[in-house]
Specification:
With 273 residues, the protein is α/β, with parallel strands linked by helices. The protein is built from 9 helices and 14 strands. The strands form 2 sheets. It has an 8-stranded mixed sheet with strand order 5-4-3-2-1-12-13-14. Strands 8-7-6-9-11-10 form a 6-stranded mixed sheet. Helix 2 packs parallel to helix 9. The chain is globular. The N and C termini lie close together (10 Å). The N terminus is likely disordered.
């Protein structure tokens, strides 16, 4: 790879998803990818992490990277300043509206298993009966009564179904409750209900405005359907080889997988043009 000084990187903003994209399967970032990101920032571009994870589930990764810039978390609900460890913006999901949406989905497909992501820098993930918990850096708060999910402000609700696939559940929820809440699929077993109109694109546009950069100068990397709005906003969308077919269908190009330094491969190519 040529030195940053000898390169003219064509984008002013690099937006990267975390899981399945920037992070390898073992939840680490390779040295090659770190070097590529350092090279593009040295060439004058900004790097923004854009993740479905809420801030408490993201902060330790950013700290490990030595990342001091802005991050878009919670599917766009939170713009977080990593260097200052503070929230700049935060959007919550109306709990009554969420309850109505859940009732409509359950009337269509039967009982759901539920969890909720609490708002704030230290918000917990509150998990209701039956919900299959995914491993993560924070302890989940298990509750016996679903009513306990609504005791504090939340930024999203996770839904699971005992039989339906993630794609089928997301489609059903969107069909019957899409006028009340946003519905997205962020990963295996992760179907989410969000404030209506919220997406990674809305959060990214807020963060980009703060940095003085525009969509026309943005390259974005992702792997799941929740990255589709971000690809629609950015000038160039790059799907990982391991990406969901829905995202690949709208991507401008497909790179190698997150296990094979897919982000670095693309950035190095642009740096050496």
């Amino acid at each position: 790879m040529t030195s940053p000084a000898a390169s003219a990187f064509p984008y002013t903003l690099v937006a990267t998803d975390l899981d399945g994209t920037l992070l390898r399967p073992d939840d680490t970032v390779s040295e090659r990818t770190r070097e590529a990101l350092a090279a593009v920032t040295a060439a004058g571009a900004a790097h923004i992490v854009v993740t479905g994870r809420a801030v408490p589930w993201t902060r330790h990764i950013l700290d490990d990277l030595g990342y001091n810039g802005l991050a878009v978390c919670g599917q766009g609900a939170q713009v977080y300043h990593a260097g200052e460890h503070r929230l700049l913006t935060s959007v919550t999901l109306d709990r009554q509206l969420a309850g109505l949406a859940i009732a409509k989905v359950e009337a269509e497909v039967g009982p759901l298993y539920l969890a909720a992501s609490q708002d704030g820098l230290d918000g917990s993930v509150v998990v209701g009966p039956g919900y299959r918990v995914q491993e993560g850096p924070l302890a989940n708060v298990l509750v016996d009564d679903v009513a306990d999910l609504w005791t504090a402000p939340i930024n999203k609700v996770y839904i699971q179904h005992p039989e339906l696939s993630d794609d089928a559940l997301a489609a059903a929820a969107r069909e019957v409750a899409g006028d009340l809440v946003g519905v997205t699929m962020a990963g295996p077993g992760i179907v989410e209900l969000l404030p209506l109109g919220l997406s990674k694109a809305t959060g990214l546009s807020l963060a980009a405005r703060r940095l003085g950069v525009k969509a026309a100068g943005t390259i974005a990397f992702g792997d799941m359907p929740n990255d589709i709005p971000m690809f629609g906003w950015a000038a160039h969308g790059v799907a990982m080889a391991n990406a969901h077919d829905e995202l690949k269908a709208v991507a401008d190009e497909i790179t190698t997988s997150n296990a094979d330094d897919g982000i670095a491969a693309v950035l190095e190519r642009f740096l050496t043009v």
